[in-house]
Fold:
Amino acid sequence: MNRRLILLFTLKHSIQLLVITLGLSLSNLVLAQTPTLPTCSGDSQSCFEQAVVKFNEYRENSIQNIIAKTQGYRLPSAPFALIHPKRTKLSALLIHGLNDSPYYLKDIAQILHDKGMNVITILLPGHGLTVEAMHTVKYEDWINETKWGLQLARMLGDEVVLGGFSTGGLLATLTAIENPDTRGLILFASAFEIKGPVGTGNRMAGLTCLSGKGETESDVAESPIKYRIRSHNSVCQLEKLISHMHSVIDKGGFWSRSSTVMKTLAKKVTTYHDVVPLKYP
Structure:
């Protein structure tokens, strides 16, 4: 089955949609087995109700953790959901970017909800707390959190759309490849590559894996929704996640057939990474 990649470029206060249909079959990829996740054995309405309860528990646990670790300062970073009174034809899982939080996805979540979708977000491990939490996080933690969110989204809608910004877009793409029943992708400046001279960004980013718990200040203003200090380990884990996705693609023979498409897509998307509005509130 052919899949669509829907690229959302947020420039100033407008959203442009570029729909690219790739004439490639994701279902033909040979992939590693995904760990078995809990499923709902009841009818669709029962599964929907269970999902709502599970998300509320997840959000409450996140809130309590944020309060404990930041005295409530980063509460705006908590995951949120926009859910209709019943199961919908489409549901959406939205995933935030590196050092970011679900707060950045509020506008697009509202748009999708207004279009009739049940929408949930997740807070990736290491985020929404303190930068120290990023020193020990692993990219596998982000993958597992995304799998949990996907399972919940499946209980909220007949089909699932995955969306993400930057690292979240990378996670959404990887998850879609591993789950060919995904209805579509909504990508914002997906981190398929890390910027660097003459295509050396990924290799240069890999050097951060040698610096342990190092930190670097960024020019981002201090706010409760994004880390101003960047953990070197977070960049290291992003580089590992990119390499992991490439290895998954290579195993399915997908990369060799579509490298030009994917590399062009990566460059086009990441071009807009620095101009997405990052103001709070």
